[in-house]
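Dear colleagues,

As part of the handover before I leave the project, I'm documenting each prediction I ran so the next person doesn't have to rerun anything. This entry is a single chain, and its sequence is reproduced below.
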Amino acid sequence: MKHRLLVVDDEAGVREALKQVLEFDGHEVRTANSGAQAVMLYPDVRPQVVFLDVKMAGLDGLDTLSQLLEVDPSAVVVMISGHANIATAIEATRRGAFDFLEKPLDSDRLLVTLRNALGRAKLANSYQRLRQESDARYQMVGESAPLRQVREIITRVAPTTGRVLISGENGSGKELVARAIHEGSPRSGQPFIEVNCAAIPSELIESELFGHMKGSFTGAVTDRAGKFEQADGGTLFLDEIGDMALSAQAKVLRALQEGVVTRIGGAKAIQVDVRVIAATNKNLELEIREGRFREDLFYRLNVVPIHVPALRERRGDIPILVAYFVKQLAGGAGAAGRNFDPEAVTALAARPWPGNVRELRNAVERLLILAPGRRISAAAVERLLGGYQAGPVLEAAAFALPFVEFMERAEKLYVESRLKENDGKIAETARAIDIPRSSLYKKMERFGLIKADE
């Protein structure tokens, strides 16, 4: 495979000799006769590997190395010198050089070093690509007022050490908030460890969090570090903490209070430096009253509360999210990049989305895969996602309203219809639409749906 290489040396004979050897090995080689020229050429050439002389007139090799790494922190640079010494080699390595070769260059060693350097360049490119994909995956998309408010809190709390309790419905984006806090914190270069407390059986949660020693229980065949230890120096995200067993809650409280954990079957207390971010889709205050959650743990976790709005509370973001998912999904899973008709987006925005952003993404992917034609129509939305009738008012006159007012009316009709389905019983309706009862009360009050005797 042909790779792009850059040879930098102020001696024409050395440049040409290196170029011949490297081109004979099947690579594309560009040359520069000075450090300044190398810095100028680099953005256009984007070489996988740079061979850089140390001693050059003007900008020397070490300063050129520093400037190249400013242009591209992932640059792979091999230093070459006819006056090598240990101090120079150490300084080159400290500044970020991959390797150091002495003149006169041995062809075999040169090519071995090149192959190793190309391996490093491949790893660096893979890491950068994965990081970009990860950043895109965990991006918070939308410009609505509720989402802007969440972002403002994240900006303020991320640089601090304060614990955060994130609340919100399933699929609303609680993990995105936790990751944004971690990425904005001084711990961003350290581990982000996630534990889904609802997905781990109660008898295993303590082992998962705190680790265990060999032989401490059936199946413990080796010593194992828990998530607190794995997150040392970084962030531990306890998702769905409302589902954690009371026994594990007591140990989490101790870890927060004292900064130490003890493995199951172990006697040694292990010091850990962990920032804990918790999330829940439950009303923890109700869980406390009913004896399922520790009040002291709640107050330890709830230093900075962040509520992530449900998708129906920020319907203005739906067109932005649809466009984002179309771009993200184009080409993936057989989903072609196509446009949605405005009426199709309006139909999507009017739906209740009990599964929130996660459900919307799945719906967009289904439509991209299954909808006929070059554009996706409102008819395709209804046929492939199932009809949704918010009420007779939305079928005609409501479509002439401003978008925000249309969404407000659609939400009111949705709440009103679900209350009717549950005979006006607020607790049952809140459970049916998967929101806290207090949130339903607020919506009913806003829409004038509370009776005088309630």
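The first strand starts at residue 4 and ends at 8. Residues 389-393 have pLDDT under 50 and may be disordered.

All the best with the project,
I.
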